[in-house]
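Morning F.,

Quick status update on the modeling queue. The single chain you submitted on Monday has been processed. Sequence for confirmation:
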Amino acid sequence: MLNKPDEAMNIYKKINPIEHTKIKEAVLKYKVEPYVIEADIYSEDNLAGRGGWTWYTGASSWLYEAQIRYILGLNIYHGELTINPCVPKEWKEFKVKFKWKQATYHIKYKQIGERKTIIQNNNLIIKENESIKLQEKGECEIKVYF
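Structure tokens below.
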């Protein structure tokens, strides 16, 4: 929300459970499920790095919200989509596929270091903070240059 993508990703990685289980030593320290969001990561003495209070659905929904809305920048409101990505500089190109009702959206992002431009189905050009009216059926291709 502060438009600091590298800091946002750093914080996201700190709370993402999979980041705490990449090597055996980290798994032994973390001690909780790598597929469940923890409410706490302890920082004191012999408990430093250990997860706690897992299986809280509120925590997982906030992580999902951070991923979708604030990092990938996808926000659906009243059947309209806005796209405002806040991704690290090293993410030069990436793709997202999502379904809305019976439609499938294929979104291709590309960082070019200029004003944001969105192209929908190769003909409709949307600039800055305009939204896209979502279709309920079919396939839709969106290209995001930012």
